[in-house]
Amino acid sequence: MTQSSRDMSRRRLLLGGAALGGGALLTACTSNEAKPNDAQIKPAEGGASAGNAAPGTKVVIGFSAPAADHGWIAAITNNAKAQAGAYSDVELKTVEAGADAAAQRAALSTLIGQKPNVIVLLPHDGKELNAFGLESMAAGIPVVNLDRAFPDARAYRTQIKGDNYGMGVAAATYIIAQMKAKGVSSPIIGEIPGIDSLELTQERSKGFADTLGAAGFKVQRRVPAEFTVDTGQRAASQLLQAVPRMDALWNHDDDQGIGVLAAANQAGRTEFLMIGGAGSKKAMEDIQSDKTPLKATVTYSPSMASSAISLARLIGQGKGMADLVELQVPKEIVLASETITKENAGTYLKLGF
After folding, report:
1. How crowded is residue 99: how many other Cβ atoms within 10 Å of its Cβ?
2. Percentage of the chain surpassing pLDDT 90?
3. 182-204: per-residue pLDDT in tens?
4. Fold agreement (3-161+302-336, 164-299)
5. Cβ atoms within 10 A of the Cβ of 44, count?
6. Can you state the percent helix, strand and coil of the chain, rounding each to 5?
7. Where is each Periplasmic binding protein domain found (predicted)?
8. pTM of whole model > 0.70?
9. CB 19 within 8 A of CB 52
């Protein structure tokens, strides 16, 4: 597994709440071996009546994201390019992120020399690229910080990211409701997070534990994986061997969830219900078919990249969001985590990455 995968902050589906005035986008791309969806964008509309979407001052947007070595990251880049292509007044200049934060920083420094109007950046690591954000902002080039947060608010003009704590809350809320419906008062609950050293993983687990605790529940066994199929299978095998009976399991990531389900199938374990994380197309198809323990997934959408391009365009043109009273794009946007079940999977399937 590459370092860019290990540093991965991750996903979610539907831009929570409001459609962005310049065009909020709902996405999809390659995940696992499922047929990829097309990028979901809001097409730009012509004419004076189109408001913010009408062609305006040309905006050159610089863009950088880690290599597309994972379904969600592939969707990030795909969505950014597709949304930029939907606007006749946007030129997208992409630079390679390289293998690590240092390589990405070097490429971005070159990009500053080209003087784009705005830069959209999904960093290898938000803390390590914070200095670049400060440099770009000081040079008069606004930065839209995508997903992996810069710790310094001065390093970005706008930050759009997912709510990792909210993912844990959503997963726990679903489990609590299901356990109460089944009359299970003391459920045995397992958890398979992603890389434990990542802040995003810790936030997800905290949201999960806090919400379970409020209902009088707790996690009995927690075995981390690394956001990949093989590590998901290995972690699940270890967990299933340690817990002979289980009522519910939250797996943080739908890609590693393929391995989790493989381990459950190999062990002949079907007594528990499983909740995924991210909102991949494959996971939604499994939920819809209702033939595996996977009964729901909580989302973390790569649509944020499409929306980041729309926001960058508005910033470059000095506009605000059409549905808001304020004259400028907000400083921060946090996406909501949707819960996908058999009942609504058909509606959300086209948005799976």
Report:
1. 14
2. 75
3. 999 999 999 999 999 888 899 99
4. yes
5. 21
6. 40, 15, 45
7. 61-319
8. yes
9. no
CATH of 164-299, one of 3.40.50.360, 3.90.78.10, 3.40.50.2300, 3.40.50.150: 3.40.50.2300
Supply the DSSP string of 294-310, one letter for each residue.
EEEEEE--THHHHHHHH
The set of residues, in sequence order, having a beta carbon less than 8 Å from that of 120 and lying 6+ positions away, is 61, 62, 63, 64, 80, 143, 144, 146, 305, 308, 309, 312
* Residue 184 CB-density burial (10 A; 0-12 exposed, 13-18 middle, 19+ buried): middle
Output the six-digit token pair for 261: 């389900």
Nearest to 176 by CA among 284, 261, 250: 250
Structural contact between residues 87 and 45, judged by C-beta atoms closer than 8 angstroms: no
Q: How far is CA 42 from CA 56, 113, 292, in A?
A: 17, 31, 34
Which residues, 6 or more positions from 61, have their beta carbon under 8 angstroms from its beta carbon?
A: 84, 90, 91, 92, 93, 116, 117, 118, 119, 120, 309, 312, 313, 316
Return the beta strands (E) in 227-279 as ranges.
248-251, 273-278
Average pLDDT of span 42-54 = 63
For 3-161+302-336, CATH gives: 3.40.50.2300
Question: Beta strands 59-64 and 118-121: pairing type?
Answer: parallel
Amino acid identity, residue 94? Answer: T
- Tokens found for residue 47: 């004419």
Query: Distance between CA 108 and CA 303 in Å, rounded?
Result: 23
